[in-house]
Design goal:
CATH topology of the largest domain: D-Maltodextrin-Binding Protein, domain 2
Largest sheet: 8 strands, mixed
Number of domains: 3
Radius of gyration: 32 Å
Number of helices: 10
Helix content: 40-55%
CATH architecture of the largest domain: 3-Layer(aba) Sandwich
CATH superfamily of the largest domain: Periplasmic binding protein-like II
Shape: rod-shaped
Number of strands: 12
Distance between the termini: 70 Å
CATH class of the largest domain: Alpha Beta
Length: 313
């Protein structure tokens, strides 16, 4: 059935006059009358009582008009939805974050996404290790990930957001806590808490590489999967940890953060999605994330330059 005929019938039924309906539709009256006749012929039902002055609905016409209104409203709604999807202003996205981005970047990102793309339903998963994020991207469990880049992967597209300096998280009573900065060599003989090697953590390999590069064999005492757990164990005095600078946004009593120097090392943060994904709402969300990430980290976190009082976090 021609959708135009439904619109023609609705206009005539609402105006109760072919001439006024034709003016409303910007068409001549004879084709309009012919189209409504064709519709009645297809249905095998008289929808209108016609006189020289006006048009009235039959009982069948009144019932049919009610359904026609619902059909046309649904068609218009579907068209509006299609336009909004094409414009990237509606949809659903799940975003996964590594621990440091969860604390330092996710608050600003979630605010900006909600403000700029209110028609998109966002969900967030924090405290994800990079390998788990890559797996989640491939499976569709998350659509976008803020992660520490691993080896090149043709199935994913990654955009570098920034490079984070490394800092050392120390128990407040640690022998190095009173220093302004810590060298990698200073960590010789210090118990360390690291992200899990078994779960292929990027930070595990970064920490081991930095320390061994300084001639220090890491003395790893605890491996964890979540950054919040890592910092909690530091606060409990179970060891020190080398972490990206933005982790300092996670303040706990009993933890102090000191810049890592000689070597002054860092680790990249990127936003990634599957290479075969290019939906407009995903592209727009990635653009917002990239813009928010360009705001200097110092505007969101404080990575101690001057040592705070012992016990401050």
């Amino acid at each position: 059935m021609d959708l135009r005929h439904l619109r023609y019938f609705a206009a005539v039924a609402e105006e109760r006059h072919f001439g006024r309906a034709a003016e409303r539709l910007h068409m001549a009256q004879p084709p309009l009358s012919q189209a409504v006749r064709q519709l009645e012929g297809e249905l095998g039902v008289e929808l209108l009582h016609r006189t020289t002055r006006r048009v009235d609905l039959t009982d069948a016409g009144r019932a049919y008009l009610e359904r026609v209104h619902a059909i046309l409203a649904g068609v218009d709604e579907a068209a509006d939805l299609a336009r909004r999807v094409a414009d990237g202003v509606t949809g659903r996205l799940a975003i996964g974050c590594v621990g440091s981005a969860t604390y330092s970047l996710l608050p600003a990102i979630s605010r900006s996404l909600s403000a700029e793309l209110p028609g998109i339903d966002f969900s967030f998963r924090g405290e994800m290790l990079a390998p788990d994020q890559a797996d989640a991207l491939r499976s569709g469990a998350v659509d976008v990930a803020l992660l520490r880049p691993q080896a090149a992967d043709s199935s994913l597209v990654a955009h570098r957001l920034r490079r984070d300096r490394l800092v050392v998280a120390l128990p407040a009573g640690h022998r190095l806590a009173g220093r302004r900065q810590v060298r990698a060599a200073d960590l010789a003989g210090t118990d360390l808490i690291v992200h899990s090697a078994d779960r292929r953590s990027v930070m595990y390999h970064v920490v081991v590489r930095v320390l061994r590069g300084a001639g220090v064999e890491p003395r790893i005492r605890h491996e964890v999967g979540e950054t919040s757990t890592l910092v909690t164990l530091v606060a409990g005095g179970l060891g020190a940890a080398v972490v990206p600078g933005p982790v300092a946004a996670l303040t706990l009593p009993g933890v102090v953060y000191r810049p890592l120097v000689r070597p002054a090392a860092g680790v990249d943060l990127a936003v990634a999605h599957r290479a075969d994904r290019s939906e407009p709402h995903l592209v727009r969300a990635v653009e917002v994330i990239r813009r928010v990430a360009r705001v200097p980290a110092a505007a969101r976190t404080a990575t101690a330059g001057t040592p705070p009082p012992v016990g401050a976090g």
